[in-house]
Amino acid sequence: MTDEPNREPAHDPQDLERLLIARQWAGDIDGMAALFEPNAVVDSGEGQLTHGREAIRALFADITATGRKFAAGDQAPAIVNGDLALTSTRLPDGTVTAEVARRQSDGTWLWVIDRFSIA
Q1: Cα 64–chain centre separation
Q2: Are 21 and 48 in contact (CB under 8 A)?
Q3: How far is it, in rounded angstroms, from Cα 70 to Cα 23?
Q4: What is the pTM of this model?
């Protein structure tokens, strides 16, 4: 019998980035993917779109296997409109990210769109 890790959910869209970084540093690839809706899409740059949670999991596994660690940046306040939120962060290297999160039926938040770099 395998135990599912007890993962903190995102109760606010601002929680998502912090949880993603913490899970990557802990090596919790499944936990990283769990921050996305099942049909989410990630634009990791270079014209590459990754569709679906399983493909996103594979993307994060590949990134983490290189030894690259995500770093916390200067997170802008989320813009929330009903059950949707726009999150954005300026990373230490100057890159700016943009994400769209959706409130789930239990009140937690998951990303539906993630773009690693808009600027």
Answers
A1: 14
A2: no
A3: 10
A4: 0.90
Q: Using 70 as the pLDDT threshold, list the residues of the chain that sit under it.
A: 1-5, 119
- What is the C-alpha to C-alpha distance for residues 11 and 108, in angstroms, rounded to an integer? 5
Question: CA torsion angle for 10, 13, 15, 17 (degrees, to 10)?
Answer: 120
Phi, psi of 13 (to 5 degrees): -60, -25
Out of 3.30.70.3270, 3.30.1490.190, 3.20.20.100, 3.10.450.50, the CATH code matching 15-115 is 3.10.450.50
- 42-67: pLDDT as tens digits: 998 877 899 999 999 999 999 999 99
Q: Which residue has the tokens 């990373």?
A: 91
